[in-house]
Structure formats: structure tokens, C-alpha cells
């Protein structure tokens, strides 16, 4: 294993926050439970520019991000259509890791590999279009 690389998620049990909260807080996406029903997922409001972010605690090389989508208790998997994955050393400067434009309906695992070598302490998932942002679990790998 290379220094700084990991086969385990870097994001599990780390501090997370989101732009707004509609019932379910950001930390539910990093609590280590991959179930994809509402009570296990983070949920923002339905507003423009919604985002979710995790603090990895220190700088890592970020290679891959996997999202567990909410598909088991509603017809809302499409909420993940049109998202951008971003990595930052600080929360004021972001670089795009990749995008997922969809379709996400019925798709449980959405995995994106960064389009180049990226280093950062923070990983953010941001909506391109206005909609709720629902994340049942987010796994960040090095």
C-alpha cells in the first residue's frame, strides 16, 4: 500500500456538514450504515446550490468517491442527477474531481474516480440544478 493510500473509506465517522438541513443531518452520510432508506440518509432543502461536505481531518490524495443513493423507500434516486464532486485543501478553494449527470433513478452505488491526481482535506458534493440533495452514505478513498 502506498503512503497515504487506503482501501478503507477515509470519510466514515468524520465531521460532515451541509448547506441546509431538511429533517436529516449531514452526519448520517458518514455514520457507517449503508442502508438506503430516509432515516439513514442526509437531506438538504430543495434550494439552488445545495451541497454536502466532509472534513477528512488532514490532507489525503483523493482518488474515488462512492455515494449510496436513496432508492429503497421513495422514487427519489434521481435527486443525484447533476452533481459535482469537489476536493479542497481549505473550504474556500475547490477543484473539481468529477461529475455525475445521471441518470440515478434506481442506481444504488454511484462511483466517480477523480479525473486527475487530487489532494485535499475536504470533499464536497454539490448540486448543479435545484433539488434536494440526499446521501445515504459517502465513501472517500485514497
Please describe what this structure looks like.
This protein is mainly beta and 142 residues long. The protein has one domain: Jelly Rolls (Sandwich). It has no helices and eight strands. The protein has strands at 15-18, 42-43, 51-68, 83-90, 93-100, 109-127, 134-135, 137-141. Strands 1, 3, 4, 5, 6 and 8 form a six-stranded antiparallel beta sheet that branches. A two-stranded antiparallel ribbon has the order 2-7. A hairpin with a 2-residue loop joins strand 4 and strand 5.
Key words describing this protein structure:
mainly beta, Jelly Rolls, 6-stranded antiparallel beta sheet, two-stranded antiparallel sheet, globular, disordered N terminus
SSE blueprint and pairings:
Blueprint: E1 15-18, E2 42-43, E3 51-68, E4 83-90, E5 93-100, E6 109-127, E7 134-135, E8 137-141
Antiparallel strand pairs: 1-3, 2-7, 3-6, 3-8, 4-5, 4-6
Keywords: Calcium, Disulfide bond, Lectin, Metal-binding
Family: Belongs to the fucolectin family.
Biased composition (Polar residues): 1-22
CATH topology: Jelly Rolls
Number of helices: 0
Coarse morphology: globular
Low-confidence stretches: 1-5
The proportion of residues forming helix, as a percent range, comes to under 10%
The first-to-last residue Cα distance is: 10 Å
Report the major sheet. 6 strands, antiparallel
What pattern of helices and strands is seen along the backbone? EEEEEEEE
Query: What is the strand content?
Result: over 45%
The second-level CATH architecture is Sandwich
Task: Count the domains.
Answer: 1
What is the average per-residue confidence, as pLDDT, rounded to a whole number? 93
How many strands in all? Answer: 8
- CATH hierarchy class name: Mainly Beta
| Class from helix and strand fractions | mainly beta
Whole-number radius of gyration? Answer: 14 Å
In CATH, what is the homologous superfamily?
Galactose-binding domain-like
